[in-house]
C-alpha cells in the first residue's frame, strides 16, 4: 500500500476536511433499470453467460473493482434480475444503480471567510503549512470552471463521466464553489481564501447540470481519480441509500493511499441527503470495509 503524502485537510460544514471502461459514455440521465453487480474473481469467467441468460445488457464496467453495470431490458424485470443475480454463485452483491446529488453550498461571495475558516481556526493551520503543489485534490462534483479567476493555473487534467469526454467544465456552479473552498488561490488580494493554497485541483464531473448523478459514475470517478494521481478525493454530495459499489471504490482508494472525504449533509441528521456519503466512509474506509 502506498503511504499517503502529508496534506492539508480541514473539516468543513459542506463536507471538506477538505480504467475508463464505458461508464461515462453510457451515462445519459438516471435510469431506474440499471444494475451494478460485484463479482468474485472466479465469478467473472461466467459473468457473460449469466447476464445473457437473465436478459441483461452490459453497458459499462469498473475492472479494478470486478463490477459490471447492466441494463435490464424491461424495467419491471429489474427486481427479478436482482434476486437471480444475488442467488447466483460468484456474485458478491447486486444493487440498483442509485442516484446521488450535490449538497447545497451557500452562494455568498465571501462565505468561507464569514464562517468556515473561523470555525476551523484555519490561520493556525496556515502557520504550519498551506499545502503543496505536489498534492492533487480531486473534486467529484459538477465539474470546475477553468476560467474562474481564483482557480486559474491550479487545475490538472480531469474527466467528465456525464458526457463521456475529457472536458469536465462546470455547467451548474456547485463544483466550482466547492473547488474554491478547497483550493482557491490565496493571499493574492482577490476573491476568497482557499484552505489548501498550494494544492492542485482535479475536476472529475460525476453530476450533471442539475446536480444529479448516479452511484456508478461516482464509483468510477473515485477509481479514476485514484488511478490518475489524486492524493485526496472530495465528494460534496449525498444519497438516501447505502451503495456497496461506492463503498468498494472508497476502499480501493484507501488501499492506494488516497484520503476520501465525503459530505455529512446539511440536515443535522444521520439520515437523509448525506447518508450514503457517511456510509461510504464507514463501509469503505474502515479496515475490512466493503470487503
Assembly state (oligomeric) = single chain
- For the terminal residues, how far apart are their CA atoms? 16 Å
Along the chain, the helix and strand elements come as HEHEEHEEHHHEEHEEHEEHEH
Radius of gyration: 19 Å
Specify the structural class: alpha/beta
CATH class of the largest domain: Alpha Beta
Let me know the largest β-sheet: 5 strands, parallel
CATH-derived architecture of the largest domain:
3-Layer(aba) Sandwich
User: Could you give me the name of the CATH homologous superfamily of the largest domain?
Assistant: Peptidase S8/S53 domain
The number of distinct β-strands equals 12
Principal-axis shape equals elongated
What does this structure look like?
With 291 residues, the chain is α/β, with parallel strands linked by helices. It folds into two domains: 64 residues, Peptidase S8 propeptide/proteinase inhibitor I9 (Alpha-Beta Plaits); 185 residues, Rossmann fold (3-Layer(aba) Sandwich). It has ten helices and twelve strands. Strands 7-8-6-10-12 form a five-stranded parallel sheet, sandwiched between helices. It has a four-stranded antiparallel sheet with strand order 2-3-1-4, sandwiched between helices. It has a three-stranded antiparallel sheet with strand order 9-5-11. The longest helix has 13 residues. The protein is elongated, with a radius of gyration of 19 Å.
Amino acid at each position: 500500500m502506498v503511504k499517503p503524502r502529508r496534506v492539508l485537510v480541514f473539516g468543513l460544514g459542506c463536507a471538506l476536511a477538505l480504467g475508463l471502461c464505458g461508464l461515462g459514455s453510457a451515462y445519459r440521465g438516471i435510469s431506474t433499470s440499471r444494475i451494478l453487480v460485484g463479482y468474485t474473481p472466479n465469478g467473472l469467467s461466467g459473468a457473460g453467460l449469466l447476464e445473457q441468460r437473465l436478459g441483461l445488457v452490459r453497458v459499462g464496467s469498473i475492472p479494478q473493482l470486478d463490477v459490471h453495470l447492466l441494463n435490464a431490458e424491461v424495467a419491471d424485470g429489474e427486481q427479478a434480475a436482482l434476486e437471480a443475480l444475488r442467488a447466483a454463485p460468484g456474485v458478491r452483491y447486486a444493487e440498483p444503480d442509485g442516484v446521488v446529488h450535490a449538497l447545497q453550498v451557500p452562494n455568498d461571495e465571501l462565505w468561507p471567510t464569514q464562517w468556515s475558516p473561523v470555525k476551523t481556526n484555519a490561520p493556525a493551520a496556515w502557520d504550519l503549512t498551506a499545502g503543496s503543489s505536489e498534492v492533487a485534490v480531486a473534486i467529484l462534483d459538477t465539474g470546475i470552471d477553468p476560467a474562474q479567476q481564483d482557480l486559474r493555473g491550479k487545475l490538472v487534467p480531469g474527466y467528465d463521466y456525464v458526457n463521456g469526454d475529457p472536458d469536465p467544465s462546470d455547467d451548474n456552479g456547485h463544483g466550482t464553489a466547492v473547488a474554491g473552498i478547497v483550493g482557491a488561490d490565496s493571499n493574492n488580494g482577490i476573491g476568497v481564501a482557499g484552505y489548501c493554497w498550494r494544492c492542485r485541483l482535479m475536476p472529475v464531473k460525476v453530476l450533471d447540470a442539475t446536480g444529479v448523478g448516479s452511484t456508478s459514475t461516482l464509483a468510477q470517478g473515485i477509481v479514476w481519480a485514484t488511478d490518475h494521481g489524486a492524493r485526496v478525493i472530495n465528494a460534496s454530495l449525498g444519497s438516501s441509500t447505502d451503495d456497496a459499489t461506492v463503498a468498494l471504490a472508497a476502499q480501493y482508494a484507501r488501499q492506494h493511499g488516497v484520503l476520501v472525504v465525503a459530505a455529512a449533509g446539511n440536515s443535522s441528521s444521520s439520515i437523509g441527503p448525506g447518508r450514503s456519503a457517511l456510509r461510504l466512509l464507514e463501509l469503505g474506509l474502515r479496515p475490512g470495509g466493503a470487503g
